[in-house]
Amino acid sequence: MLPEIAKLGHIALITPDLKKSLWFFSEVLGLEETEVVNGTHYLRAWGDFEHHTLSLTQGEKSKVNHIAWRTKRPEDVEKYAELLTKAGTDVKWVEAGEEAGQGRAIRFKLPSEHTFELYFEMEKTQPGQDRKAVLKNQTYKAWRKGTSPRRIDHVNLTTSLDASIIHNYLIENLGFKMREYIDLGDGNIHAGWLSVTPLVHDIAVGIEHDAPTPNRLNHLAYWFDNAQDILRAADILSEEGIEFVGPGKHGISQAVYLYVKDPGSGHRVELFSNSYLIFEPDWEPIKWTPEDLRVGITYWGQDAHEISVDSTEA
Is residue 306, in this structure, part of any structural domain at all? Predict the structure, then answer.
């Protein structure tokens, strides 16, 4: 049986202003802090079940340390290590406990130099009684603070390389499926939205021609229950004097969006809602061309093209 990835697990960010980033992610966005270990703060949304979906660590410059994915079975981590090594990827082991709450894992780089991590074992740490939800199927109390997203949703990466190289790597080596893509008619796929779950995308990868490095983060995204939650988030951000792009709706993914930057690091976060799910086993990827791209990027609302530049290093 081939190994499989179950879902996006977490993203580890480096920030030059840890205090400001913690304020933004914890108080403004409303993520809950699980614990602090060796200077790294581990956070998650009220509907996330694992130990963390985000970690923040102080550093000299803004960057992404790694993006982590949970496998479907414990043995899949070892199987991926073997398959990736045979495919020519340099795989390094991360021992249990090196990352708080997490068991043994592997790390490796995509051809674009983005660092991925694969793991299975992860604590499902329970919160204290003051933060614990009454509902047994929910981790924290909802709407306790800030914008209060339910869960992590996806990551969007850019590269100065041919994006198809990364798309093919994700499909051939990690089992991702192409869901929607942009074809500008120049022989290259400009961007692709891929997933291992019924989500339209767990990851998107696009071209950023003038990027100073091939490994860039366009944004990470947290999911909200409905579009009204996004409007409420806009009020909260405005109250704090934080600028943002949106709200609006993408044609691609059919998602309602709002984009905001962490003032401590410059990392961009998408507040994401609605969209659609894919259950068809014979799904044919949706092609978007220059003629219909305006609808694809911005179906309505503030133009999402305003967030297409100034990515941070992954």
Answer: yes
Structural domain tally of the chain?
A: 2
Task: Tell me, yes or no, whether 93 and 165 share the same domain.
Answer: no
Q: Where are the beta strands (DSSP E) in the chain?
A: 5-15, 32-37, 40-44, 54-58, 63-71, 92-94, 105-109, 115-119, 151-159, 177-183, 189-195, 203-207, 216-224, 244-249, 255-261, 268-274, 286-288, 300-301, 312-313
In a domain, 263, yes or no: yes
- Structural domain for 269, as ranges: 151-313
CATH number, domain containing residue 53 = 3.10.180.10
CA–CA dist 251, 254 (Å, integer): 5
Helix and strand counts by DSSP (H, E) for the chain = 5, 19
> Rounded to whole angstroms, how far apart are CA atoms 80 and 313?
26
Single out the residue in 119, 143, 163 at which a domain terminates.
Answer: 119
Residue 46 in any domain: the answer is yes
The whole-number pLDDT of residue 209 equals: 86
Distance CA 171, CA 193 (A): 11
Residues 6+ apart with CB under 8 A from 99: 12, 55, 105
Q: How many residues does the structure list for the chain? A: 314
CA nearest 172: which of 91, 231, 86, 74? 86
Q: Could you give the C-alpha distances from 158 to 2, 52, 211, 288, in angstroms and in order?
A: 28, 24, 8, 18
Instruction: With 0.85 as the threshold, say if the pTM is over it.
Output: yes
Q: What is the pLDDT of residues 279-308, one digit of tens each?
A: 999 999 999 998 888 899 999 998 876 654
Boundary residue ending a domain (70, 99, 119): 119
Query: Do 97 and 163 sit in the same domain of this protein?
Result: no
